[in-house]
Fold this protein.
Amino acid sequence: MSLDIQEIVVEYITNNLDKKILNNVSINLDTLLREELDLDSMGSVMMIMNLEDRLNVSLQAKELHEMKTVGDVVSIISTKLNAKS
């Protein structure tokens, strides 16, 4: 099964974040989680928990703090999944 991690992350964002914010942002790998998507620490934790469950991967708190952009999320999750293979 081939997973498109970017597609899954973007799908989560578009389905779960404030639509008023999303109307003003083009989501791509460079999109800033806090500054552009207004994703606070609780929102980040919720997103990561959802993605961990969906993708059967476990992330460390340190990795959560390293995630500044959508690309960071995609990269860290992809690295974890590749390490499991």
